[in-house]
Specification:
16 helices; about 290 residues; two-stranded antiparallel sheet; 2 strands; mainly alpha
Length: about 290
């Protein structure tokens, strides 16, 4: 049971804003169940470097495109890898990845799936494992680093890998920290490194957090998220996950609400508010008394 209705009836009403933020943050539980716990074994992530690398690429190869295209790229990478494990082992020994690159370019690039930069990212990521991680396990390395030193150092290392920028590094770190319950290891000043700012987060921020800004910068959005989380006692990482889940699964969320709530109750609510579909694509409910 979803059990929430995230409805803004007055953006200036602190109680309503609190309810909205808490409800959306609670959706992180759905995100955790469906996209982390149901898909990935924590024990295997810590003990199988190849499985951990798949988790890593499942995050880093998203690259701001459709999920389906990214899934096809990940599938292609691991199909090639499965058939050429000897090339991977040779690469780890010698640092020469040319043979593996040739095989990857046969499947990935213009006219196939993904782009050439995806191959460069995979190779640079493997070289990162070779140079930095003795047992090759990037997830175990990340967990150990976060426990020992927080996220700042490992964030900087990830940001140095080709095709990994702030959003991708934050996305990966947020989910590792969430899955292994490490948020307590992250200093308050570094919580911004657990906040990937994607399309859904930007839409939410423009509508509810950053007043009057047509195109707020990511750093400003992060600061606003951190402030509202501090105001209402919410985990920033959980709010970030919840915003994405609400946006990406908006149809499913609505259906779940309709399963649990008497439609007559919703009709009565809608009689009292004006439904304004903002240019951002998000629905905001505004009381008639606030309309001029």
């Amino acid at each position: 049971m979803l059990g929430i209705i995230s409805m803004v009836v007055n953006s200036q009403d602190d109680n309503t804003m609190r309810r909205l933020i808490l409800n959306i943050a609670n959706l992180s539980e759905k995100y955790h169940q469906e996209y982390l716990a149901a898909r990935w074994s924590k024990d295997k992530l810590l003990n199988d470097w190849y499985y951990a690398f798949e988790f890593f690429l499942d995050h880093t190869l998203l690259q701001g495109r459709s999920d389906r295209v990214s899934e096809k790229v990940v599938e292609a990478v691991f199909e090639v890898s499965e058939h050429n494990r000897n090339m991977i082992e040779e690469g780890f020994k010698s640092g020469n990845w040319k043979d593996l690159m040739v095989k990857l370019f046969e499947r990935i690039g213009k006219g196939k799936v993904g782009k050439r930069a995806d191959v460069n990212h995979v190779i640079d990521s493997l070289e990162f494992l070779r140079e930095k991680i003795s047992d090759r396990n990037v997830v175990k390395y990340t967990v150990d680093e976060v426990k020992a030193r927080g996220v700042l150092q490992v964030y900087g290392e990830l940001d140095g890998i080709k095709q990994v920028g702030d959003k991708v590094a934050c996305f990966y770190l947020r989910d590792v920290v969430s899955l292994f319950e490490l948020e307590g290891c992250v200093p308050p000043g570094d919580r911004r490194l657990l906040l990937p700012i994607d399309t859904w987060v930007k839409k939410f921020a423009k509508e509810y957090l950053v007043e009057g800004a047509k195109d707020p910068k990511n750093d400003e959005i992060k600061q606003k998220i951190l402030k509202v989380c501090d105001d209402y006692g919410v985990s920033p990482a959980k709010l970030d996950q919840g915003i994405w889940y609400a946006g990406f699964n908006s149809y499913n969320v609505l259906i779940e609400i309709l399963k649990q709530v008497d439609i007559n109750v919703l009709i009565e609510i809608l009689k009292q508010v004006d439904i304004n579909v903002a240019n951002s694509g998000m629905i905001r409910l505004i009381p008639y008394r606030d309309l001029s």
